[in-house]
Amino acid sequence: MVYRKTMLPYLLLLLLAHAGWVTTADLANCSLVKNIFILAGQSNISGRGGVINHSNRPGVVNEAWDGVIPHECQSNPSILRLSGGLRWVEAQEPLHKDIDVNNTCGIGPGMPFANTVLKRDPSIGVIGLVPCAVGGTSITEWAPGGFLYKQMIKRTKAATRGGGKIRALLWYQGESDTKTLEDAKMYKLRLERFFKHVRHDLELPNLLVIQVGLATALGPYMELVRKAQQEINIGNVKYVDAKGLQIGPDYTHLTTAAQVQLGQMLAEAFLRN
Fold first, then answer.
1. Where is the Sialate O-acetylesterase domain (predicted)?
2. Cα 84 from Cα 188, distance rounded (Å)
3. Which of 19, 183, 206, 255 could cross-link 177 (Cys pair, CB 3.0–4.6 Å)?
């Protein structure tokens, strides 16, 4: 079925909000997927590499993705993504185009992660990526019981209907929690609670979590949030530090080249595990 481009974002939002309507018949090829990875958090894992603001006026946003796809991010028949409509399709950039629908999406770390894993371990089989990230979201918006959390769990459970194993949660979030001292101080407690609930609700008590240390912030308390990330005190949580990677002209988002590097770093952390 073909939809008019102008209606697509609204239809996709309906699909996300009512994902329970989708039946297992819509996941006909899900038996191909052997390794499932969840991508969640905010804009730097959703992907803003190559997204440019073409407005020259302060406070005015006119963003567009430049469409440049590095070879590390190219499609591969062995890399699938779970679409907003809960269908496995061949993964293509931008991975979050029908998930983070209110923002302009570009290159993220998901494709270079998957391509690096496949290159290093060709025997691993088909990789299924489950994009769930939404730009600008705080850790409280990911609290168990909230919309984002419920959609992530629902999408992940849908991804496993035909088999396959959830291998890891790739998590990059926290920029929004640097705005106030209270949120920065509460970040460790809230993040640990989030990870524990994810494991409980997916019935995977030892699920590998690979979290990314902040490279940028939206407020003055980045180091407090970074400290909280480094001090997470639950087992099987790995830390990959994005600090020092190239930042775009908005001083907030990683560039395309940095996203490629981050994806490779995440892959190395997974493969070491």
1. 34-271
2. 30
3. 183
Q: Over the stretch 9-66, which tens digit does the pLDDT of each residue have?
A: 334 444 444 333 333 334 445 567 899 999 999 999 999 999 998 767 766 678 999 9
Per residue in 163-184, pLDDT (tens digit) is 899 999 999 999 999 999 999 9
For residues 114 and 66, give the distance between their C-alpha atoms in angstroms, rounded to a whole number.
Answer: 22
Q: Cα separation of 196 and 71, whole Å?
A: 36
Q: Which is nearest to 171 in space by CA: 145, 190, 146?
A: 190
Sequence-ordered list of residues with C-beta below 8 angstroms from that of 70, at least 6 positions apart, any chain: 107, 112, 256, 257, 260
Catalytic positions = 43, 250, 253
Unique residue bearing structure tokens 């699920």: 207
CB 63 within 8 A of CB 156: no
Task: Give the separation between CA 160 and CA 41, rounded to whole angstroms.
Answer: 21
Higher pLDDT, residue 70 or 60: 70
DSSP code per residue over 71-121: GGG---TTEEEE-TTS-EEE--SSTTTTTSTTS---B-SHHHHHHHHHHH-
- The C-alpha R_g of the chain, in whole angstroms, comes to 18
Nearest to 175 by CA among 91, 272, 256, 242: 242
DSSP for residue 161: T
- DSSP 8-state symbol, 59: T
Helices (H) and strands (E) in the chain, counts: 7, 9
Residue 28 burial by Cβ neighbours in a 10 Å radius (0-12, 13-18, 19+): exposed
Give 174-190 as a DSSP string. Answer: -GGGGSSHHHHHHHHHH
